[in-house]
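Late entry, evening session. Most of the bench is empty. Finally got around to the prediction I had been postponing all week. Sequence below, unchanged from the version circulated by S.P.
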Amino acid sequence: MSISYQETVGVSTTIEIIACIFALFILRSVVKDNKETPYLFGYFISSLLFFYFLNQPPFEIINTGWYLEDIFGTITSVLFGLTICKKSGSSNLSRLLMASFILFTCALMFNESHVFYTMAFSAFCLCISLISLVRAENPNQADKGLAIFLVILLLVIFYELYNLPSGISRREYFETDFYYPLVYFSSLILVLTVFIFTSQLINLTLKYKALATQDALTGLYNRTAVYNLVNNQLALAKRNKQTCSVLMLDIDHFKKVNDQHGHQQGDDAIKLVADQIQYCTREYDISCRYGGEEFFIFLTNTDSNAAFQIAERIRHAVTEQSKDKLYGPLTISVGLTQFQEANSIDENIDTADKALYASKQAGRNQTTVS
């Protein structure tokens, strides 16, 4: 059963209002601190104005009949693209969209085929949005779902453009069976809201998970997360009959760094050591800021001899990389023990910690094996 143009506008407006209510009362509380929020709400407002001015008489600009929905439809397309680009962090694509919008608006003043060109410009904005999503770093499942949705929407628009009669007017367009894209347009707004809301929830979940397991200053694991991670690695090492080792590291004379150069320089020193630990260890090794200026490293499939080489590599790297720093050069002391399955994790850490203390007692800037 076919529906009339007025019924189509009614359905589209209803979908649009649902999307806006969803955004105002739910989405706003989640994404209010994100860069895409102003563009998202501008998108909602301009799309509402698009529906409000549908079926209004045109006005003349440079002997060309303009409909207000043409203007707001174009603005809505740009704001859609900017929302996605800001969410994906694509500043260059955002600038491209703005420049294209200005050029397109100027060109449209001298052309009466508004239906075809405004739809083509919408397709261009969707293509830029898709490129932005594809190029985004660490996209989550909601971002991937939105990308798939954009591909489907682009296929619909390209099909519509292919079948669009040449020279059709805005009135003729909406009085034929071609008006059904209105429903697609309004559905796009609702789907966009749901996808961005879901994406932000996923990102927030990952953020809080990272805060629960990572040290904020260094990005290494924190002390709370270590035990579960080490237990998992130990189970794997036991199954594969592999040897593991434990390192405890401490920055020498760290109090002097804070006292002489301030806590900001002290934080920089801690981050430098953490960076060198990550650089000198493997991806599956477990590195942790154990407390203050002390670090813990669990080395999988590594005996004490190999662990000693890694410890020395870290020690030399820290001194080399810090020699030009205000507080440099830094030195570190290291305690090392080969993991004993008969002992608990805490007992092995305590053994490595005693070896670290022995390095301190022996004059610092060295590695002691226990």
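Two things to note before I forget:
The radius of gyration is 30 Å.
Residues 5-209 form one domain.
Will write this up properly tomorrow.
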